[in-house]
Recover the amino acids of this structure.
């Protein structure tokens, strides 16, 4: 899909000639930049691609395709996040990226792994955020800890951890208010939530996952960077990959900020979440 | 003090090699456009849109006469910004009002783009204008979306019409009847977010349009959206022939290249910008401000315009001559301060510089306006001879000046030291004969 069609179908023409000319690299650059990879990363990849083709003397479209795919996969290498239980996941991100839906999907994911799950309605800011999470909890038949709108989110988290310990829950997933990363008071609130959960349950594994919308452009980089300044960011949930957006901004994020992608989301149902698969991701960019 | 950051700085760097004035050459344009291209792509303007834009601007810029008061870099920026501004529609376009009430406004867009919050903001802003809006909750897919709109409606005291998870068409039709009955003049229909490739849900919107015949169909887009902007806006526009676009979440640090992408691909006006989480933060769209933002330029063009007004050309020439001859005196210093005041004073100048608003506090300490007034008093306590030949100001003269200005001798010493530093800076600028306004400005420190 998309307005650009399949990259390798389009570029076949260039390989029938003896040399790859600028037009070919223009096409390649367009494909990469259109995935939201950014100018720098795209240029880097093209440079590396050129050199590989030259040093390996590759002149056919299949060979080139393989090389490009290898480079793209290689650039997204990172150490996988391994879960230990009890596990407390705090989910952060700006407004509208799909935090609550991702939480529901994760709850479903851990349920399927035979882990007990509890949700914490820590977004006490947005109208009806608690109701939204509550409805998901009902559908998924998982427990939820909540207070009313306007409550102190740190105190909801405190309740959640107390309940988690009492009921011996494996995974606690904390929803937080969406915030534009430029608002410092809301970022402080996150620090507080982090401090409380570590203090109350030091034996548990604590991770913060940031939800990023694949259709967002270079600003995703700024988002991760800003959240990282306040709290640890241990991984990314990249959502809305079911559209035509490619999420190429993951490249500069992984490279410059060293944050791995943990999950990808690709639909509205609770099953539309999986552990990140670099090959599938790259194939979509080249599609 | 770095005057031009981002694009401006990079352009200045390119042009610093050039010494002659006159027309912009093809080569200069090409180099400059390379930087403009990167700036636009980093602002998430769509690749194909950038390509077209660069081609058209390059054509316009070649052979363009450089205005006397601008540096070539500023000239290029001006051409680029003017072109961006006119591409984004020139002026702000207002909401249509139906000749026979109620006016029906239908929202559409991706999930999470901010439709519900914007609906609330629009309702509040209409209410403040004396209208009677009705909010209609038609998002039957996202859990608690209806609840969210109800909470919003309650907080701004606007009626919210809902029929639970009923069919949106049925609900909307009933809502319009309700509005007619209770003399409500604007019906705002909040629809569910959907992907543009979801045919079933896109059909639902087409049906809704056919049945309701809305006055406005507003496409709500997250201003942080990336290259995807083109696919999204094209698909929604093809399906619904939208009447306008709303950019949300502009209060972040996003550059908002989407404005250019969307405008040039679907050609529909951007009617509103939504800039905050509070329900009052709604702004009309100003293409010129957006252009500066996309380029990462702050209000630099306004500043250049103001500088043009404040400083007449003869004065600039005279000043440049002085730079060259290194014969800058305290009298010149004073006339520069006056120019600065004509531009609205130091604070307003700083606030217009890109990337400076955050550093304002810090700069204020370094460049205190009060200090400048004090400096002026000190200079005015000097004799004409002293002003023209600062080197003759010895210890006893310093004491006399301090008494005259009502300051300490250390203040006089500080000013003279500062003045000598400025002169030193000018010596460096001497090689760069294109000092112009930017050199003048640098001197202000």
């Amino acid at each position: 899909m998309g307005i650009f069609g399949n990259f390798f179908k389009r570029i076949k023409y260039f390989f029938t000639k003896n040399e790859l000319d600028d037009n070919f690299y223009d096409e390649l650059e367009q494909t990469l930049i259109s995935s939201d990879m950014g100018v720098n990363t795209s240029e880097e990849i093209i440079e590396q691609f050129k050199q590989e083709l030259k040093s390996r003397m590759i002149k056919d479209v299949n060979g080139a395709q393989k090389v490009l795919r290898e480079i793209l996969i290689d650039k997204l290498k990172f150490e996988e996040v391994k879960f230990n239980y009890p596990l407390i996941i705090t989910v952060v991100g700006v407004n509208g990226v799909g935090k609550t839906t991702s939480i529901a999907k994760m709850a479903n994911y851990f349920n399927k792994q035979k882990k007990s799950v509890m949700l914490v309605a820590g977004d006490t800011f947005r109208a009806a955020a608690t109701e939204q999470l509550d409805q998901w909890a009902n559908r998924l038949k998982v427990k939820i800890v909540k207070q009313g709108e306007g409550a102190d989110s740190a105190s909801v988290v405190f309740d959640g951890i107390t309940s988690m310990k009492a009921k011996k829950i494996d995974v606690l997933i904390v929803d937080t208010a969406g915030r534009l990363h430029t608002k410092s008071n809301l970022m402080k609130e996150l620090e507080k939530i982090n401090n409380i959960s570590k203090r109350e349950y030091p034996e548990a594994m604590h991770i913060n996952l940031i939800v990023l919308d694949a259709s967002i452009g270079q600003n995703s980089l700024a988002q991760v960077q800003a959240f990282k300044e306040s709290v640890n960011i241990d991984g990314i949930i990249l959502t809305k990959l079911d559209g035509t957006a490619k999420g190429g901004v993951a490249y500069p994020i992984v490279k410059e900020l060293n944050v791995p992608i943990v999950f990808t989301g690709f639909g509205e149902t609770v099953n539309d979440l999986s552990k990140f698969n670099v090959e599938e991701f790259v194939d979509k960019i080249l599609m | 003090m770095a005057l031009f950051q981002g694009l401006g700085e990079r352009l200045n760097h390119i042009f610093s090699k050039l010494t002659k004035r006159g027309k912009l050459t093809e080569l200069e344009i090409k180099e400059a456009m390379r930087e403009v291209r990167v700036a636009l792509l980093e602002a998430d303007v769509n690749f194909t849109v950038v390509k077209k834009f660069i081609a058209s601007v390059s054509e316009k810029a070649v052979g363009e006469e450089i205005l006397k008061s601008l540096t070539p870099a500023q000239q290029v920026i001006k051409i680029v910004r003017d072109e961006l501004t006119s591409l984004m529609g020139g002026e702000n376009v207002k909401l249509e009002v139906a000749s026979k009430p109620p006016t029906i406004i239908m929202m559409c867009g991706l999930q999470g783009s901010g439709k519900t919050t914007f609906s609330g903001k629009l309702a509040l802003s209409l209410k403040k204008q004396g209208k009677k809006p009705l909010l209609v909750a038609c998002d039957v897919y996202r859990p608690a979306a209806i609840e969210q709109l109800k909470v919003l409606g309650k907080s701004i005291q606007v009626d919210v019409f809902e029929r639970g998870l009923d069919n949106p068409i049925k609900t909307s039709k009933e809502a319009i009847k309700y509005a007619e009955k209770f003399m409500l003049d604007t019906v705002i229909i909040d629809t569910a977010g959907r992907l543009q490739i979801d045919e079933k849900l896109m059909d639902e919107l087409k049906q809704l349009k056919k049945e309701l015949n809305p006055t406005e169909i507003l496409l709500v887009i997250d201003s942080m959206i990336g290259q995807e902007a083109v696919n999204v806006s094209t698909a929604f526009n093809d399906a619904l022939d939208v009447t306008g676009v709303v950019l949300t979440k502009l209060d972040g640090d996003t550059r908002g290249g989407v404005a250019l992408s969307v405008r040039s691909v679907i050609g529909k006006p951007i009617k509103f910008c939504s800039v905050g989480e509070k329900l009052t933060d709604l702004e009309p769209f100003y293409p010129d401000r957006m252009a500066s933002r996309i380029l990462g330029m702050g209000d630099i063009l306004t500043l250049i315009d103001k500088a043009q007004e404040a400083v007449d050309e003869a004065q600039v020439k005279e000043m440049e001559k002085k730079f060259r001859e290194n014969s800058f005196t305290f009298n010149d210093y004073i006339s520069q301060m006056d120019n600065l005041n004509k531009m609205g004073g130091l604070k307003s100048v700083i606030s217009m510089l890109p990337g400076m608003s955050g550093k304002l506090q810090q700069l204020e300490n370094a460049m205190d306006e009060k200090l400048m007034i004090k400096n002026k008093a000190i200079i005015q306590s000097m004799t004409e001879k002293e002003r023209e030949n600062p080197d003759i100001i010895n210890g006893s003269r310093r004491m006399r000046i301090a008494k005259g200005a009502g300051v300490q001798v250390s203040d006089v010493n500080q000013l003279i030291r500062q003045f000598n530093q400025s002169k030193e800076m000018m010596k460096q600028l001497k090689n760069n004969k294109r000092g112009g306004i930017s050199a003048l400005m640098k001197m202000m420190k």
Notes: Chain A touches chain B at residues 1-3, 30, 33-36, 38-39, 94-98, 126-129, 131-132, 134-136, 139, 149, 180-182, 213-220, 222, 240, 242-245, 249, 268 (CB under 8 Å).
